[in-house]
Write a structure and sequence with these properties.
single chain; 404 residues; alpha/beta; Metallo-beta-lactamase, Chain A; Rossmann fold; elongated; binds flavin mononucleotide; FMN binding
């Protein structure tokens, strides 16, 4: 049975939802699933835009067959050769051997590396800005290297205004029947999974995202649909989405808020984190969130850090080092280029307390523009009664800094 939705006249979403995959890229949990989007234009020439993960191939093939309704496939545009989008290409080619493949030079190199067998006379190699006529539609191409692979490009159908944006503007979360951004309450139901996808997968490439946003700006008037390879199709409210991307790509927080992340074995560091959270809330600070680093997948922590302006790192000492899960979180922040945040540190230890110094050194030496607030709290095993004042001071410092 086909599962197809119309994007606009003659253009169909023929993608597939996946609720079975536990870990996207075998690393990021996706409890709400993911969609692999593929699109089919049925016109004077029939054009397929990207394919789907191997896992989802059978459903996509049924969808293609239904839309083509006995006609042949003329072209396949591959914007991105990552296997969750290109893996099913070989099967499509076997079913529709006359189809020509439109891609860029780097993409075809990758295709060869991944073992695709594509006849030379089937390849149409495009350069940035080329216009290719496919029947009554004209396609043009913008390259967006490292968002998030080197060959990635977007294709704009100049005839109907559909931008096939590859992984840009993509999101975790299965569509489950919905297709358009205006069919959901995006800010409530989708933005967190969108942010988690973007920040963890292409967070590192903020400057590259800025470049493609700049390149695409003059074309904005012509874009009527943004069709990413994961998540919803956008047909309204582009400003909302672009604003979010501007923040993420510039490493600017979306809101004033405090993310308290603690790493604790016996609960004493945790107690300090919770006490600080309660004091902040009592002072009227909004957007306070607390996370146990041991029990929260790091992709959620990264997403929260991109969203908020302030971070509290509370860690016990472990073999003269930072507690391993906290160290991993720091390394991940560094790898994803997190920067420009205000940070407070709480340390704990029972005989040689080192975690505070080490966290501060990491923030100063390994990351960019991370401002460490002065009032570090040091706990010798368990918070002493007299330390309440220190917590009050820290809460006040954070509040003042949020106001600045
Ligand atoms: C394997 C292991 C290594 C530790 N290494 C250190 C250390 O190097 N320096 C130190 O002061 N405390 C060390 N500790 C003790 C804890 O950091 C300390 O008891 C701390 O108060 C625990 O905080 P928590 O209650 O939040 O887990 C270690 C504990 C364990 C189990």
């Amino acid at each position: 049975m086909h599962i197809v939705r119309e994007v606009t006249d003659h253009l169909y979403w023929i993608g597939v939802n996946d609720h079975r995959l536990a870990l996207f890229e075998n690393i990021h949990p996706i409890p709400e699933g993911v969609s692999y989007n593929s699109y089919l234009l049925k016109g004077e020439k029939n054009v397929l835009f990207d394919t789907v993960d191997w896992e989802a191939c059978r459903q996509m093939m049924e969808n293609i067959e239904y839309v083509l309704d006995g006609e042949d496939l003329d072209y396949i545009v591959i914007n991105h050769w990552e296997p969750d989008h290109a893996a099913s290409l070989q099967v499509v080619l076997e079913a529709y051997p006359n189809a020509k493949i439109i891609g860029n030079q780097k993409g075809f190199q990758l295709a060869e590396q991944f073992g695709f067998k594509i006849d030379e006379d089937k390849k149409i190699v495009v350069n940035e800005g080329d216009v290719v006529e496919v029947g009554d539609h004209s396609l043009t191409f913008l390259f967006m290297p490292m968002v998030h692979w080197p060959e990635a490009m977007v294709t704009l159908d100049l005839t109907n205004g559909a931008l096939f944006s590859a992984d840009a503007f993509g999101s975790f979360k299965a569509l489950d029947g919905k297709l358009f951004n205006d069919e959901v309450d995006y800010d409530r139901e989708w933005i967190d999974e969108n942010r988690r996808y973007l920040t963890n997968i292409v967070g590192k490439y903020g400057p590259h995202i800025r470049k493609i946003l700049k390149k695409a700006a003059p074309l904005l008037d012509q874009i009527k649909f943004i069709c990413p390879l994961h998540g919803l199709v956008w047909r309204s409210d582009f400003g909302y989405l672009l604003d979010k991307y501007e923040h993420w790509a510039n490493y600017e927080p979306e809101q004033k808020g405090v993310v308290i992340c603690y790493a604790s074995m016996y609960g004493n560091t945790e107690q300090a984190a919770q006490a600080l959270a309660s004091k902040l809330c009592e002072l009227g600070v909004e957007n306070v969130e607390v996370f146990d680093v041991s029990n929260t997948h790091v992709s959620y922590l990264i997403s929260e850090v991109f969203k908020n302006s302030h971070l509290v790192l509370a860690s016990c000492t472990y073999n003269l080092g930072i507690f391993p899960v906290m160290k991993n979180f720091l390394e991940d922040m560094k790898a994803l280029n997190v920067q420009n945040r205000e940070v407070a540190v709480i340390e704990n230890g029972s005989w040689a307390i080192r975690s505070g110094d080490l966290i501060s050194e990491f923030l100063d030496d390994e990351m960019k523009q991370m401002t460490v607030l002065n009032d570090r709290i040091t706990i010798a095993s368990h918070l002493k009664e007299g330390q309440e004042e220190e917590l009050d001071e820290l809460a006040k410092t954070i509040k003042d800094s949020l106001r600045a």
